[in-house]
Design a protein that fits this description.
This protein has six helices and no strands. It is mainly α.
Length: 168
């Protein structure tokens, strides 16, 4: 038993914080896939794996990207991998689930639409929300530095064309 502990500690020291966190999530996902496949009557491992992968995408990835972009150096406990996991899960829950709740509330009470259309749209709603959250995180981080440069270059080109007598 001591050999395994030394072996594990030696290899964990070489891994980065993100590798430790994703490794833990991967081990947890494999355990969940095996467990649900064994206990679910006719479900195959591929079907259960797809559902768990979709759950990880919706409930973890947006928060992880926000943590990597803005809170990468934050330290709450001694275990940084656990810190990032908790922050990512919490931020994903706050952003994705809150937006999903609001869109569900608006679509049920605000719109008068056919149930079949609503059900068809529900399949893609969570993926659209995840894409919007990730896009917004990148936009808020990088757009304020990129946009002024782009607008300044555009303005100079426009002034140069106007000075040359070109229209449009």
């Amino acid at each position: 038993m001591n050999f395994y502990k030394e072996y594990l500690e030696k290899h964990l020291e070489k891994m980065s914080v993100d590798q430790k966190m994703w490794g833990g999530i991967g081990v947890f996902a494999v355990i969940m896939i095996i467990m649900f496949t064994l206990f679910a009557g006719g479900a195959t491992g591929v079907l259960v794996g797809k559902k768990i992968a979709a759950g990880l995408l919706e409930m973890f990835l947006p928060g992880y990207i926000i943590v990597k972009l803005y809170l990468n150096d934050m330290k709450i406990t001694e275990n940084q991998a656990l810190d990032r996991f908790i922050l990512a899960l919490g931020l994903s829950f706050v952003t994705v689930q809150l937006l999903a709740f609001v869109t569900e509330y608006v679509s049920v009470f605000g719109l008068n639409e056919d149930q079949d259309e609503r059900i068809a749209r529900e399949n893609y709603k969570s993926l659209i929300i995840v894409a919007l959250v990730i896009g917004t995180a990148f936009g808020v981080k990088y757009l304020p530095t990129y946009l002024p440069k782009y607008l300044e270059e555009w303005k100079k080109k426009k002034e140069a064309k106007a000075a040359a007598g070109e229209t449009k």
